[in-house]
Structures are given as structure tokens and as C-alpha cells.
Amino acid sequence: KNINIILAVIIAIALWAYVLGDVNPITKITVSDVPITFTNVVTLEYSERTILEQSHDTIDITVSGPRTEVTKVKKSDFSVVADVEALNIGSNVVRLSVKGPDKVEITDISTDKIDVIVDQLVLSEKDIEVAISETEDNTVEPYVVEMGRNTINVSGAKALVEKVEKVHA
pTM, whole model, 2 decimals? Predict the structure, then answer.
């Protein structure tokens, strides 16, 4: 009886190795959190526009192919690109361009479009406020003798820059 069990285990392992090695079955996996790259951001900024927010930073990609190839796939093998060059101020829909390794097939992506909100790119001068943190030596009180400048330029999306009242140093 023990010999039959050992023989059955050896045959099962041999068949399993044959199926994985020679047959190489088609397998599917999902690669999660593949980052989206935004192209032509500089061109957008030349037009005094900038990205305020986007609906997704990453997507999930499902691939299928021979098991030996699918198991090698990693996030860095994929390119997910959103071209933002021609976007207008306000809400925009951007189609994603997804590319992956040649030996596997992309069968599904979590989304093929993302929403991108574009705002005016502004530059605003803000006051600098010096805040002195606690010192180890409590016998000496620190104070500001001289500041090189009293203001600093803050740039970014108009909606965000308008929220900045002052800059702490």
C-alpha cells in the first residue's frame, strides 16, 4: 500500500512537471497599480495651463499568455501614457495608451480613459513668515536678525495657489 502511494506521488509530480514544462498552458494574471505617465506636461505649461487633478494615478492590467512568460511579467514592463498636450481648462477625458511585453496579450485594463481637470497656471508672490522652533538651550531665546527676503513666488494651479496665505520658514 505504501509503495502505491509513493508511486502515485512520483507519477503526479512527473505529470505536473510535464504540463508546466512542455505544454506551457495559457494563464491569466492581473498586474495591479501600474503607474500612468503624463506626457507633454511642459507643452501644457507653456500654454499657462496645468493639471489640477486626475481621476486615476494607476490602472490594473490583465494579461494572458504562456505560463512561463506570464509569470515573468512585472509593473515596469508596461507603459501607460496619457497625453495632456491639447487639454483645455476645465474637465477633460484622456484616452490611455497601454503597451506591454510582446510575449503576452493584454486582455483587460481597469480603465481606458481618465478624467483630468486642468486649471490656469499662475505665479503669485506670498509673504514669508518665520517660525522659530524650540531649542535645546532654554536659557537663550532665538530671534530673527535679518531675512534675505520677505516674499517668495509660488506657482501652480490657480485653485491651489489661491489657498496659500503665507509661507512658513
Answer: 0.74
